[in-house]
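Why predict the complex rather than its parts? Because the way molecules touch one another can change local conformation, and only a joint prediction can capture that. The input here totals 466 residues.
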Amino acid sequence: MSLAQLAGLLADPTRASFCTALLDGRAWTAGELARYAGVAPSTASEHLSRLIAGGLLAEERQGRHRYVRLADPAAAALIEDLAAFAEAASPGRTPRTLRESTRQSAEARARTCYDHLAGRLGVAVSDALHDRGLVADDAGLAVTEDGRAWLAGAGIELPVRPVRAGGRPLVRSCLDWTERRTHLGGVLGAALCRTALDRSWVERIGSGRALRVTSDGGRTLRELLGIDLDPAH
Amino acid sequence: MSLAQLAGLLADPTRASFCTALLDGRAWTAGELARYAGVAPSTASEHLSRLIAGGLLAEERQGRHRYVRLADPAAAALIEDLAAFAEAASPGRTPRTLRESTRQSAEARARTCYDHLAGRLGVAVSDALHDRGLVADDAGLAVTEDGRAWLAGAGIELPVRPVRAGGRPLVRSCLDWTERRTHLGGVLGAALCRTALDRSWVERIGSGRALRVTSDGGRTLRELLGIDLDPAH
DNA sequence: GGGACGTTTCGTCCCCCGCCGAACTGCCAC
DNA sequence: GTGGCAGTTCGGCGGGGGACGAAACGTCCC
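Output of the joint prediction:
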């Protein structure tokens, strides 16, 4: 597959909206995506087949449903990078409806970005880890010795060695386009997000990618990382 | 600018070939790119205007020439990532002509990848730095203390702190699609490549992106990093 | 100044691709 | 089985965009 063919898959507004929707890291059905993008089911079906053939999406059939999700972290990173570059080239537009505005502010507060935390929560976690010297960026972004100990203490496991050269980076900085700041992705970001969901520090709001910090989660984040989230915001 | 619009810029074979050609890190004239891609000058001119408007390319006018290059390291990284993903999705084709084959083998030996070293030379340098503990990848890819000292000893300067959060990473692993291995990019990769060119350890072959290791360079690489390049390959 | 050359603008052609509706295939529930 | 729902396949329509050549523009060299 050529660069142009790959880019061509993302060059259509409908297919691009599918991919950004799937950036919440979950599996959607073909019908959900069709309604989300405002196209006929037949149109969505054709688009999905092409995205899957191109290796960007993976499907899972269950009964009469076709569940579809991003193929792997590499595909997610690619789409994130493209979206970040496009956003940087010319900053986006403001929401027009109240419903959209509410959703956007919820997502700006806390959301998933593929499989890690984003929004103000994601940036706050990233900042806290930096401030406490658990990750450092002065010689390439990396987890420190202290960071490894802290993670072990919190019961969060990380592989000791990278899986293989060229594999998923252990920690990766991901540009947050609501905050215009970076948050943590990679294996570490995914582990933190999984832990937060597993232990109910955060929970999903409805079917979108927005998250709510539970009262339990707020306390834990304060104790563990000194994060004080403004509840009004 | 939307994701789809950005991807649309790269979705055309002619524009994509421009971008991959420019991955050698140098500035090409509009006419050179037109001949390279096999299209009329008028066609190339229109494509270039669109790529520049989209922020992927930057231009510099000199007399009756229009020099064009990749806009910045972020644009280069984006194109590299797309090319690597496309190549991974379905491995490429073998060359058909002798001329093409010769060029490919020269580029497989040593070439520039935007502003850093790639090919077997790039991978060898990357491996050597890893083996000697000058960079480490066990907690995120980073330059070690030893590495900083070694660089200072070799007269290669690196900024102490990242320029700004979200800026160019100090060191970045870049997938080498001839070697199917990673080599070093980012600020470190660029500094190494610049040093190698400035001190004539390597020199460019003709107008492509291929490099030749000079006899002086071969000796220096052996002394400094213990790299033994097979001259037959 | 004159001619060559690199580049651009414009007009035109044509193919590709995204969209829909209609009809069909499976799967599930009653 | 029978109806209903999710998804797919196909034909046809329409628009956008990439290609070229011709002509204009600006720069450099003699």
